[in-house]
Amino acid sequence: MTEAAFLSHDGPVATLTLNRPERFNAVDADAARVLTRLVGELEARADLRVVVIKGAGPAFCAGGDIGLFAAHLDDPAPMVRGILDSHHDFLQRLQALDAIVVTSVHGAAAGAGLSLAFMGDLCIAADTARFTPAYARLGVSPDGGGTVGLVRAVGPRRALQIYLMEDGFDAPQAEAWGLVNKVVPAGELEAATKALAERLAGFNPAAVAATKRLVHDAPGRAMAEQLDAEMTELIGCMKTAPFRDAVHRFIAKSRAAKPGASA
């Protein structure tokens, strides 16, 4: 039986592929459980630097499975909890990773798929990608972390616009709003995602993890507390070998650039 999602690895870069292409990678209870198991595998990887999330087939993720919703109209609560309890665990553990999470979006990202696209730390999208909130038209409120990642990126007023005023929007618009970090031609998405992942994987992992913690924790902290956290994280980074090596390289390059240094 084909897994609803799977991991592949290229050195310090892991790629998590949503793998229900026949259902446009819609999330059901089985998919949510698989994602939870896979994030456990990511947590166990000491060498992990970057996680890329993408979808197999023609779409990134169509969100919830409408057919499943239709089968539970009389009592949706058990079905919803059966999906979201696992999915929430996955999302929280994904954000807690020291590794940077990059979502690579093509085709449709709708409902919970839209939410997932913006729950990563960074998002790169094909110029043909289409983002569809879908919730208001279905008569429901957002789920899957939509009021976390999206609101964090654009603020409450724009978030309300997206959920209540927009039927959908394209990748260039998402980039203009600050939801997508980079838009590339559809045929270049895979290569551009790989190049971004390799760039991120080349940084000092301690610095990346510290930066991620500081940025995510900042909204809930007083200024004095955040400044103290910056100082603590900075000192921690300065104790690492990559920092010391970078300082030595910088000094050596500066000396070599001085007139007469090579004489």
Describe the structure.
By secondary structure, the protein is α/β, with parallel strands linked by helices. It has two domains: 5-201, 2-enoyl-CoA Hydratase, Chain A, domain 1; 205-257. The protein contains twelve helices and nine strands. A six-stranded mixed β-sheet has the order 1-2-3-4-6-9, sandwiched between helices. The protein has a three-stranded mixed β-sheet with strand order 5-7-8. Strand 1 (5-10) and strand 2 (13-18) form a beta hairpin. The radius of gyration is 21 Å and the shape is globular. The mean pLDDT is 95.
CATH-defined architecture of the largest domain: Alpha-Beta Complex
CATH topology name of the largest domain, in short, is 2-enoyl-CoA Hydratase, Chain A, domain 1
* Proportion in helices: 40-55%
Low-confidence stretches: none
Number of strands: 9
Gyration radius, rounded: 21 Å
Main sheet: strand order: 1-2-3-4-6-9
Total count of helical runs of at least 4 residues: 12
Task: Decide which structural class fits the backbone.
Answer: alpha/beta
CATH fourth-tier homologous superfamily of the largest domain: 2-enoyl-CoA Hydratase, Chain A, domain 1
The largest sheet, given as strand count, sense and whether it forms a barrel, is:
6 strands, mixed
Distance between the termini: 68 Å
Order of helices and strands: EEHEHHEEHEEHHHEHEHHHH
Query: What percentage of amino acids are in beta strands?
Result: 15-25%
Query: What is the 3D shape?
Result: globular
Q: Quickly count the domains.
A: 2
| Chain-averaged pLDDT | 95
CATH hierarchy, class of the largest domain:
Alpha Beta
